[in-house]
Amino acid sequence: MAPVPDSLVRFTVSAKEAGARLDVILAARAGLSRSAAQRLIEEGRVTVAGRPARKRDGLRDGDEVAYELPPGRPSALDAEDVPYGIVYEDDWLMVVDKPPGVVVHPAPGNEHGTLAQGLVGHGARGGHERRPGIVHRLDKDTSGLLIVAKREDAYRLLVAAMERREIKRTYLALLSGDLPQDQGTIDAPIGRHVRDRKRMSLHAHAARSAVTHFRVLGRAAGYTLARVRLETGRTHQIRVHFAALGYPVAGDVQYGRGARPDGLGRQFLHAARLAFAHPEDGRQLEFSSPLPPDLSAFLEAHGLPSQPTL
């Protein structure tokens, strides 16, 4: 078994992690799938307390784990021609602009034509091999900005930053009705609906913390245009939170008020801005995406600015 080189990542086992299997803790710490963590161990890329590791090794409080990340493993997906824009790219990551109608990664019922398959030929790496490089997600009908890693270590660091709530994500949302507050925070846990597993709900057995901040940018024709910032990133968070207030996202047939309004072919939700520290050197990056033509035209038709200022 080859020794682990000096160009590696280290962490110290906590008291809470003591007694757990190495492959489980390595997967969690490195942002890897369980199978990927096991491969690192089997390839001799991991040591525990300076000794070559085995995947079933139990860990002790204070053990130092060292591991080497490979330069990038191939994706399990085949590349496909899927539309998206690239806003920024370097050796570590990409910021992409996802159009509406594109699913982010394969799932039952959407095995092909996803953003993950479109990114395969562009060097996306890290995390699960069925969604390489995908740091966070957008719903199929939500457009806008996403961060995609191009290295395993970049993926791990970006996921950790997301968990620490250090990646700032700002959306534009058009809400049905005249929301009375000009600004506010919705702090209400979200989980899977107890009966409908395709829906999320505030009334769930295993709800997790969910925090949404908003500021109203304008009101007209029975709609409220809001700037929305996510502090957490639960599935359907913005849609569920505003529906619970009684002001669902316009065009959202799953959580909203029946059929979509004329001229709006999807939910009015756009990931308009991203701000985060680069995982290599900590420099601050910020990117924005203008409203797509369909959403911009709907605003203009209803007496609101077609490209609102964030």
The description of the largest β-sheet is: 9 strands, mixed
- SSE order, one letter for each helix or strand: EHHEEEEEHEHEEEEEEHEEH
The secondary-structure class comes to alpha+beta
Mean pLDDT: 89
Please work out how many helical segments DSSP would assign.
6
What is the C-level CATH assignment of the largest domain?
Alpha Beta
Which overall shape is indicated by the principal axes computed on the Cα atoms? elongated
What's the domain count? 3
- Unreliable sequence segments: 1-7
The percent range for helix content is 10-25%
Q: State the end-to-end distance.
A: 55 Å
Number of DSSP-assigned strands = 15
Secondary structure layout plus pairing:
Layout: E1 9-12, H1 22-30, H2 34-42, E2 46-48, E3 51-52, E4 64-67, E5 85-89, E6 93-98, H3 115-119, E7 143-149, H4 152-163, E8 168-176, E9 183-187, E10 191-192, E11 200-201, E12 211-220, E13 223-230, H5 237-245, E14 269-277, E15 284-288, H6 293-301
Parallel strand pairs: 7-14
Antiparallel strand pairs: 1-4, 2-3, 2-4, 5-6, 6-7, 8-13, 8-14, 9-12, 10-11, 12-13, 14-15
